[in-house]
Amino acid sequence: MTRTRPRGMALPPVVLAVHGAAVVLALAGLGHTLWDGVHEPGHALTFGLLITVGELARWGALPGEREPAPLGAAGALAYALLGCSGGEPTTHGVLQVIAVLVAAQLVACVPHVARGSGPAPDRVARRILTVTFAAVCFQPLYNSGRAADWFGEGPYYVLFMLLFLVLTALCDAVLAALLLSRTVPHGFKSTGGTPLPYGPLLRDELRALIGIGSAVCATGVVMALGVAVAGLWALPVLCVPLLLTQVSFRRFAAVRTTYRQTIASLARATEIAGYTPHGHARRVAVLCTAVGRELGLSGSELTVLEYAALMHDIGQLSLVDPVPDGATAVLPAAEQRRIALLGGAVVRQTGVDTEVAVVVERQADPYREQPLSARIVRAVNAYDDLCGESLIGPLGALEQLRLGTGHDYQPEVVESLARVLARGGLTPVPPG
């Protein structure tokens, strides 16, 4: 899903450094271009319009889009990697590339700001730093003539450009994971605690490169090569494949959003029927996702974990008498297993992924026999159930989980939960 920083949250030093570097580069690019003038204004205007149109396409972005403006990203990369146009060498440099990108983003953000949905600062900073990286690597090497001497104009030159784009994509993934690792999950307040684990976030970003990331990079290379041979008239034709890719992805994202909304609605059935407290499923899902990320889960594993956490109590709908406060953690082990099996049967009938049903079915098993996702759901569900008891509270609930690590809860899961809670403002009791 698309992840953004909560409003009103203090920015960590690393994020401030990234934003500061982007601001310095933007000011340097705009200042140098205004002072020295625009080289090849036709090219600057054309690529500026392309980036602006691409950024405006973010208007219809859906949750789950890692790159809501792929055409803008591809256009910016193409301008950074543009060495000649129509067979004639270009003379724009790194600072003009930055200036055109910043100017296009400023123009494109006007209607978004007017609608009250301006671009996220993290995404803008990433775009500026990533395009700057590509331009710094390519422009001096090309303008000095070394690229032509080393690689010529044949297939080796294409491989040379692809290498630069791979490095640029890796740079963007590293920046994205770095910024996200300083983001507190929704539902927690910032306390300056330990950031989210960087490794799983970086794996998520690297996996995303296989999808829309590779399409953006490939289009950027093709645009630069097409303009080098045919001039600016190549741009409209070369934009079509990426636009079609964006439309297809948005249809897919819309289906996934509807799918998740259906699961969330099913999860609320236990609350509406009075079997579980209001917001219990959502709280468990948020905590489970944070704990899963802490333990190294990513991608589809986190999706399965989130869906299972949302639907973990759905088996209670089969009970004649509701469990008091929906707290299944205080029931005998046999009753917990019966409810879990009933829940798994219900999940299988809904058409949800079988892996989700398995996690729901096995959440009450001894933890040594469970998959990791079921261990997480069991521990987090017990924590939320025990927090509902006024005499225990959050600290007491966490201590109860630690006392049960011999048989009921995996110690690593409990300690990961403690770290997540510490970031949310709760200081857990130190392990005994």
List keywords for this structure.
432 residues; mainly alpha; 17 helices; disordered C terminus
Describe this structure in words.
By secondary structure, the protein is mostly helical. The model is unreliable at 1-9, 184-194 and 425-432 (pLDDT under 50). The protein has a two-stranded antiparallel sheet. The relative contact order is 0.09. It has helices spanning 13-36, 41-56, 70-80, 94-114, 121-143, 146-151, 155-180, 198-230, 234-267, 269-272, 280-294, 300-310, 333-350, 354-361, 372-387, 393-403, 411-423; strands spanning 84-85, 88-89. Strand 1 (84-85) and strand 2 (88-89) form a beta hairpin. Helix 11 packs across helix 17 (411-423).
